[in-house]
Records
---
Amino acid sequence: MLALALPRRRDDRLGAHTDLGSQGGPLLVTALFVCDHLSIKMPQRFIVDTGSVHTTLPETKARELGVNFDTLETYKVKLKMGGIGGGTDARMLGGVRLVFTATDNSSVEEQLQFVHVLRDPPTRNEDERKILATLPCILGLDIIRRFTLRFEEKNFAYFER
Amino acid sequence: MGLICGHTVLQTDDKIGEMKPKMATVTIEKSDLDKLAEFTKNTHWLLEHVDNLRAEYPDRYIAVFDSGKQVLDAHTMEELTRKILEHARDPEICAIEFVTREPYLLIV
């Protein structure tokens, strides 16, 4: 998790950690999601996903931020978005900044020309809908590749320059 | 000349012909970073205590404040949002999760 005060570590890196529950979980970081032209700045959770090229928001999360999926730009080139679970529509939200907190409490700002916003897929039941409602955003390779990702402990990893 | 991408006005750079965003800048204040730090603490606490929370709040939405010192719960997100506001808490700093009765493994 970002901003953990960890002794005997370099001070200029970002920390990430996993769900500490019995089943384990994905690697998570937190960041301030900033979108200048929509005057959005709100803390968000991100799953660190090296399998995703771009940083991505679920539609539900975008809606919480005040972003209307239907007003977003569609792709100029037809592009289908999909994963193991299937495919869905996607659009682009331009001009985004992510502000992280390093382990020395300094802020680290990363700019993105755009992020993807994925249309929420149809759900089979109420439980699926509720899980989707709190799904984190995805931190993709467009950010991850700016750092060296180092796994050091069971539940921690660090982004280093 | 510009075109609209979402709500972003993209303008042509005359020299290289690329489209670059031109937009107002949101200022990041210390209070915003303080919010992020609080959100991070709450999220960290939530992740560390997810198994205990599963036993206490099965199939409920929860909102964690003050590193777990205050946990609000509800059956719906709307009810949870109302409780957060009734307690005069800032919804942006809490960690919100739907706690499934059984462990749920997320695959992206």
---
Amino acid sequence: MFVWAMRQRMKSTVTCAAGKHVAGVGLAVGAFALALMAHSASTSLQTPPSKLQAILTKCATCHNPDQRAGGLDLTSKKTALEHGRALVPGNVDASAIAQQVVHGAMPPGNPLSESDRDIVVEWIKSGAAYPTITRPSKPLNPKSWAFKPLVLPAVPSANRLGTKNPIDAFILSGLQAKGLKPAAEASRNTLIRRVTIDVTGLPPSPADVASFLADTKPGAYERLVDRLLASPQYGERYGRFWLDIARFGESHGYEYDNLRDNAWPYRDYVVRAFNDDVPYDRFLTEQLAGDTSSPAVPAATGFLVGGPMDEAGKAAAGLQVRLRAREEELEDMIGTVAQTCIGLTVNCARCHDHKFDPIPQVDYFQMKAALTGVAPGERPLPSTQPPSAGDNKSATERIKRTVQQLATLSTSAPPSVTKKLTIEPLLRWTFDGSHGDAATSVGGMLAGGARIEAGKLTLPDTKSVYKSAPIPKRLTEKTLETWVTLDRLEQRGGSAFTVQTLNGVTFDGIVFGERVPNRWMAGSDGFARTQDVVASDEIAADVIPVQLVVTYAANGDVTLYRNGKLIGGPYRPAAVPQGFDPNGWQAVFGLRHDGSNTYLQGTIDEARLYDRALTAAEVEATYRTPPAGLLLEPTFALGSDSDQKKLAAAWKSLNDMLAARARNQARTVTADRVYAATSTKAEPTFLLARGDVNAPKQEVFAGAVSSIGTLPALFNIPSNATDSDRRKALAAWITDKRNPLTARVMVNRIWQWHFGTGIVSTPNDFGNTGEPPSNPKLLDWLASTFQTDNRYGKAWSIKKMHRLILTSQTYRQASTSSAAAKKVDADNRLLWRFSPRRVEAEVIRDSMLMTAGNLNTTMGGPSFRPFTVSSYGSKFYALVDRDTPEFNRRSIYRMTVHSARNPLLEALDCPDPSSKTPKRNVSTTPTQALEMMNDAFVLRQARILAERVRTSAGTDAKKQCITAVGLTLCRKPSQNELTRADTFLKTNTLEMYCWALLNSGEFAYVD
Amino acid sequence: MSIENQIPRRHFLRDTAAGLGNIALLSMLADEASASGQKPTLSFKPKVKRVIQIFACGGVSHIDTFDHKPELIRADGKECNKAFDTFFDNPGRLMKSPFTWEPNKQTGHLISSLFPHLRDVAHEITWLHSMKAKSANHTPATFQMNSGFTINGFPCMGAWLSYGLGSLNRDLPTFVVLPDPRGLPAGGAINWTSGFLPATHQGTAFQTKGAAVNNLFPPDSVNARERKAGLALLGDLNDGFHSKHPDESGITARIKAYELAARMQVSIPQAVDIESEPAHIKAMYGLDRPETAGFGRNCLLARRLAEKGVRFVQLYHGGAFGSPRINWDAHEGIVENHVGQAASMDQPVTALLKDLKQRGMLDDTLVVWTTEFGRTPITQGIGATGRDHHPFAYTCWMAGAGLKPGLRYGETDELGYDSVTSPVSVYDFHATVLRLLGIDHTKLTFYHNGIRRRLTDVHGHVIDGILA
């Protein structure tokens, strides 16, 4: 019997890798066969009742209260009649059941025999008296523990250590059962490094360490945890983990591997959601259907479409190629949703019933029906409210006073301070009518409210523009330089200096806030020579004039500078740089270019145009020659020491106030467009036999997994519901508190992020092939606590769970090993200590930048692109490495493309973006060692760190050692280490010393 | 299930760390993070211990190279009333092969004028004429040929072998990729990804310029004497940390990894030193002629790497799908495309087979030659001379120990339209390669997101008919 059933099953379905649970399947099949053969008491029908019962039992395999295939439940007469048309007793022609059966459409792929069809027809004719149908008779696999309803377990009374945190009680009781003891608490120095890297992905600064060690008041550790969870770096750290699961990539993969220029708003959404502690049920709902919520959060749906996309396949002329490409795309989407949200591999049921879990094939197609209207694409983002001014009046007054003070100091400087121009521009607009002022020599026209007065061009309104006359020179390579003050930082899309063809069709300009609010860019026709490379917001130009420079080199390189410093590029656009013919072009101020409708409001002190691309040093030099009357920075030597000091103090105070003002306004970078889910008409979905696009069977309706007892699988929406209603229903199903998987899966992830291994060690698989929980009661306590409002915090608060875990004694244990404990529990699954672990690739890279003092902490916005792009049918990415503010941002802001991955990060197990990665691998290889030793990035950070150490510690070797070890390893060096450093630095460079620290095992581990 | 695999393995790590010391640690280095996998013990006596794969990108026309169809001569210009699964959906008429066909002297196997060199050694080769692909789209089909799956992100065969068999020479990478000097294949590094397997098993793509491996050496600006002192200092720092955590295998392995890296700095430059080869060998591979020099160099390099213990060498012949065509994707014209492609491949590949044979290496090396699909017996568009993608039938071949040389396995129908006799799936192909290495393809698994993944997914049968 058993063997027979097994064989039958193997024939009809594709087997899915060998495994021990096949036995379970076999037994279940046996049970099904028995049910079919079961005879029961008769009714008054003409046909043998057992026969009819067997037929209806077969129907009820899919047409039952849970699955309701076709919206139909055939387990009782009452429910069968509810459908209306399905069963009309006495009328065969009006009964859809009879029609389906007679025409062989049902059961799908396995029509009834002629005599069985007659039985059904006769039965309906004679009034459809219903026999008792027992269900389910479906040969389901056993449910794993994870399907059981969630019940809050009692906290064990393991209070001998006087712990108040329930987590400790569960862990202690587990340890006690095995005769184990927890490790002592880790040293405070170890703790601050561990928890800071854990929560923010960056090491604590020496000042952080010192102040924590000095804080002897009770609750110091708890305060530290709160501070870290409130820091914006927390969202960058935990957002990264979420992006791993969401297989977030910024190119399409497959053959063309084209870039996804606008995928980053999803990344920003995730970071922000973690930082704002968006309740987890809302977080999931927005990612599934944020485009339909109010207010709409379309960027969140980047989750659905983050996977690779076969553009060639989807656009192929061949129909089969197209259909398969779309099926693969949907499998990726369904697999990601199910694994991420409920820890089930529903995607394994695309071609056949799930081999190990109670997930029939129809469940897969129900989820497909829920998501089938989703198409990846670009969609506009709703315009966000301009940030409230939030200006504090007295702060504005203070800023004004400081600027005034700077102006006074600057005018008191002797004229020799500002050097004469040493680099001769082609043209120079000084707007003062002096000799050589292009406003006079070339001439031009003012329009709108634009006026030239007091040595400035003033552009007061949205109609103001100044256009020069045609310029009788040839221009190919060029540099644009402008000194500009803006009326408001909220304005968007105007230009502080443009050169254009006379019809405005071709142009290059210094444009503010067009694509990304508050950021400068090199504007151009159709963005042909534009990239969003500037990594930080403009925070000062409404208060003081700033210098902006863009250089356009003959090889195509475009580079941006602000106040003499590099802020973006060089990058090389695909389009060839434009040349302008004599008298075919002109300069424009205010208007972006003719044909656009956006103007800049502000004043231009001076503009300079060069007929070649200036070098970085030359740009620095032009910054040293400001227009007359401008504010001078402390680097300019004033006459007197006291003035010099005043100038420095005033600048520091101004910069601090501007930074504070920017923080208060909490501007968040937003985009106009996002790569996300676009909603299309949801077409009918059919179960595909063997997953084959050419073998459609019965129609299937939107729903989810059928095995969660308390939660119906089919959604209570019309069969022709819109795409958005389907996705909303899916989100509601996932976040329904009767669904025990959602909370269990997420608390397990949070646990894993803190301890390295989850309570369930297979975070994306809570089914039968996954590992059962090491501490089931703890898992359920955490999940129940997560789901509800309680003394620890609000329902679905992720930060509440972090806080509970981080403040537990379990988390605070030392990492000291014990031979005895290892004998009992080598993997430390019971947590008798804190397991040391190597940190992730991004933590290593970001920590190097941080310790070198070189990290650009600007958050959000377009990713930096560490590559140049070439095209040969497919896109190819040649990696580049630069020491620019843009490239020195955190790794989460690095554009990840599929076909070219960073060798340093990859060697440290930064995952393939196509792969859903709920848990990072940790491998140790010679390649990794080569990258750590020789990669240009690492060598550069070592050099910059050495400079930092020298600046702060001077030339004394021991002081250098103390500073360098403090920055990298967050502790004081031992006596041995001091002596060793002293010897080493006698004959070797500090740079090499720092290199060794950055390569050390301790730097790469938390313990 | 996974827990049962993990615990004994962890015990092994613990025991070696405590008892056997550094030698055992060294040998387990590459395997350190594979605790979630099941390392197969070899199920069969291996016939070969290393593999060289040549991948002809773009889709080589089986009916114009190795699978002669006289019926096409008769039916030339006629309509073909069969359903096609093409990329451009522009069916033309049947077209005979424009090439001349001559037999191999030993077996009589007719091979077209595109491969005169390979024809001479066709009796050493085991031919698979009845291949079937799952996709008519280049990249999914290429991914399947490499990884068993048509989608991004699955480990390719080289990664599976690295994971399953480990290294033959720890001073060299286990899995080396030699891209065509004309350009990378579409998808670049996706083609040699380790997917969800640990990064250790990723293919190392050798660079055509400069040092073979990225960051093998520090830049010239780093002073060698000082670097040596820096390494000694690093050793002391690491010893200090290690003494705090004496039985942490990962920390120990990290120390060893730096030692191994230093050894690679010696062994890789030696392995790629083609200049040390005698002139007649270089000429044999065609290094003296511009059309064969690029790929010939890679074939010679492949032999050297195999000789020195690289487990899996993958050579690409052909790059991405740009214009002009630098691969076998003969949409526009079969003659203008295939003549040039074959001219750059024929002599070097033949030389590789002969060279391996004369060194006795064919006794424990497997050479496999693959493409992603065949090409249609009809033209792409009426009156045109190119052929579209054709997944229903194509030819691949293998050569080496454990195989029946000269055997022609499977057949297509008289038009070369379908694989009718003994069809071979990509899964079957992979299962057979693993079998020759001694591995049961159903037992080489790695747990990932709910499934013990395999190279052969849930399919695959060893092609017993070709095994010696």
